[in-house]
Amino acid sequence: MEIRAKVALSLPNKFYKVVLKYDTFEKATYDSYLVASIVANAKNEKDAMEYIDEITGNGSLNPHFKKLYEEISKMTKEQVEGILKDSLYPITVVDKSHHFKYYEMFDATRMDNKVFPGNLDSNPNLANMLMPKDREAKFLSLEFETEDGTVKKDNYNAIFSEKEIKVDLDDGQYYPISKENFLSVFDNEGEVTSEWMPKVGYEITAGNWNVLTKGVADTWGKDRLTYKTEEGNLAVLLNDCIKETEVITAYDLLFYKETRYNFSTQNQKKCLEAVRFLKDSKMINEYKTRSLIVLLSVIPDIYAQQIVQYILTRKNSKEIAEFGLMLIKGGLEKGWEKEVLLSIKNSVPQREYKYLYKINSDLNFEVTDLLDIDDADLAEADKMRKRAYVAERDNLIKEIKFMIGDMTTSGVRQKLKSLQKDSVVNSVKKFLNEYQGHNEGELENMSLEEIKKEYETIKAMYNGNYAKVKERCNKMEDK
Questions:
Q1: pTM for this one?
Q2: CB 332 within 8 A of CB 305
Q3: Which percentage of the chain shows pLDDT scores above 70?
Q4: Cβ(312)–Cβ(344) below 8 Å
C-alpha cells in the first residue's frame, strides 16, 4: 500500500550557468554594407583608406569605418558576398542565458521547468538542445560556471511505500530518494505536539494527504468553532461546510488529510454533531444565523426543533422564528413550548397564524388575528368573536355605502351651484367631490377601527351640513 502526499523539502543542488558560443548571422547595417562594398571593390588597402577619407572626412565616422574595414577585410570572400547579396553579417554569439540545477539525491537535472535524468553537464545532446533552430548557426563551444545552488524550502508531491520514497520534481515523474536522504531534507519544524491532535489512525484512505509538521499542528484550535468528532478527528465548523482533519502514521511519519463536508442530508450525521457542539459549547449565538438555518434544514426535524426552542426561549430571532414556522408547516406540530410559539407569532405575518392556532389557540390572538383562520378550525368562543366582529364591520360598511349613495345621487350636488356660497355649502361641495369617486373596495381592506372612524366622519356630514344644504335645496324647489 502506498500513500501520496504533499511534503515540504529543502533540496540541495548544484547550480550551472551555461556559456554557449556559436557563429551565426545578423542583419547587416548600412555602414557595414557600405564597408563590405569597399572591401569587395577596392584594389588595395591604400585605395580603400583614401575612399573612406573622401566620404567621411575628419568626422567621427572616419575611425568607425576604418575599424569596420579592418574587421570585414579579414572575412572570407563568401562572407563578404553574403553581406552584399543577402545583408547577412557574420557574428559570434556568447549566450549566457541558460542555466540548470542538478539534484544529486535524485541524479536528475531541472532546466526550463523540465526535469532530465542524470547531470546535463555530461549530456552529449545538451548543445543540440540549446542551439537555436537555425541551419546557419554553427556550434563553437559549451562551458559551465558552477556554484552551490540556493537551498529553498518548497512543496513537492511524494509517494511513500514500504519499499521506497519517490518525489515529483514537478514534471509528473517520480524520482526515488533514500529514507535517510529524505529525512535530511524534510523540514518538520520540530516535534509535532498539540492538545488538538486527532486520534492517530493507521489506515491509508483515498484523498489528498500531507506530511504533518509542527507548523501545521500549531494552527489547530485557533478557530473557536473547533471540536473533536465522535471518531476522534479534528473538526472546524465553517460558514459553508465542516472541515475535518484525520491523522495517520505510516512509514515512521505522520500524515494528515483535510476533508470538507457540505451541509447536506448526505452528511446529516456530521451536521447533527456540529449542531450539538454549538449547543453544548454555548457558542450557538456566535455562529452565523443563515448558516445555522442551513445546518438545521438537513438534520432530523425533531433535533432542529430542539435548537429552535433553545434559541427562541433566550432571544428573539426573526430568521429562526421563520424556520420554526417552516417546521410546523412541514408537519411537526407536537412538542412546541407556548413561549416559543408566541415568539414565532410575533415574527411572522398574520396570514400564517392559522398554523400556530392549530397547535395552541391560547396565544393572545386578537379578533383580527382570527380573520384568516377558517371557522372550522376555531374554538367556539373565538368563532363567536369573529362572527360578531365581521357582522359589526359589515353593518357599518352597509351604512357607509347607503349614506354616500344617498348624498351623491340625490341631486343636491347639482343644486349646490344655485345656492349662495358659505362655509356650509363649501364643506358639502368639497365632501361630495371627494366621495363621488369613492372606492367601495377600500372599505373591505380596512380594520374595524378604521371603518368606525370613517363611519363617524361620513355620519357627521350626512346628519350635519349635508342635511342643512338638502333642506335649503328643498325650500328652493317649494318656491
A1: 0.69
A2: yes
A3: 98
A4: yes
